[in-house]
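Hey L., structure's done. Input below.
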Amino acid sequence: MVAGLESPSAAANDGRLRGPVLLINPPSPSGFTANREGFGGLGTLTAGRRGFLYPDAALAEAAARLRSLRVPVRAGDLAMQPWRGPVRLFRRLPELDGGHPAILHVAVVSLDHDLAWAKQTLGEWSAPLVVQGTALAEFRSEILAALPRATIVSSGRGVPAADALLARFGATRLPLENELELPAFDLLPLGRARRVPLWSGFGCTLACGYCPYVVDTNRQYFPNAVELVTRRFAALVKAFRPKRVVLRDPNLGQDLERSRSLFESLSRLPARDRVPFEAESRPDGLTSTWLEAFSRAGGVELKLGIESFDPEFLVSSGRVPDAGAASDYRQRCLEVVTAASNMGVALRLFLLRGSGAAADGALSGVASELSPFGEVVIKDLLPANPRELWRRMHRGGSSA
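Output:
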């Protein structure tokens, strides 16, 4: 039994919560890599077993929250570690009547598989279960049909999931979240790349109709304070010694003044608290001054969502407001990628396939035009609406 929890969290240790709590990122569907990521997207699914994966930040947050309240936890990332993960999670697990309380991290893009795996693996247990992931409120009936005892937390964050689990044991007066509490990446694998994600901001104010990163935020932007991001950056470097920090923000350049202030703040950190970092943004609003500040602070890679140069798609998708802006878009993007490349910043340039016959027909030409500046990644255009995306994947649609 968990011991030592005192008020105000004593309700979490009322004699019924037995540990450890299991924190689970399920395995990927056969033949695919599921990147559930935990920063507000609907997840991505790529063919093959060696697709790109972020460390599971949502479960790392939940683990840190529970551990701060002296609740024992055991975490397994079965997507990143399909063989070692189950061993770490289940080996010598104490047998408890009704099984172990658990938090299951799922994604819309792999929801059918995630629920089927959980039903088969955890379905006989009666212990409380929290199912956590972005936009899950849309799928209440599907989740409860598979896992009737589940509490559903529709969020990309891990702390609400941890608190929801404790609430199942009667906890009602939990302390406020400590903003400086680091995610427990010591319990979850970072992968060979040893990239540690750091939340800089959630959401975006742009009107791009294809973007899933605005689902939870209703096209609002919620940035963390520059000072907080800087302090967490230094603390993550000290605690986990990553090769690189990933500033997670779907469009870091949407607030040029704030992000330049962040770069200046990071550049003032002592060398022992710094490692190279990467970020993602839309390219057309960036400036040479912004790029210089990014590089000077230690920024080494930018992921830029260019998507298309097709004027009709740019306007119809809401990527640009009108035909005039569409005609300028290509030139602005080329100016930015040229400047960044000249500064030695590595670029990953994303394009969308499926935006119309004209746009798709020109895609290879756009890719050839951009390839001298960096790696060009062509992705399928998928619905940003969670229910529509689920229907497509449910029918066996193409990978996200």
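Residues 323-342 form the longest helix (20 residues). The domain at 195-394 is CATH 3.80.30.20 (pyruvate-formate lyase- activating enzyme).

-- N.
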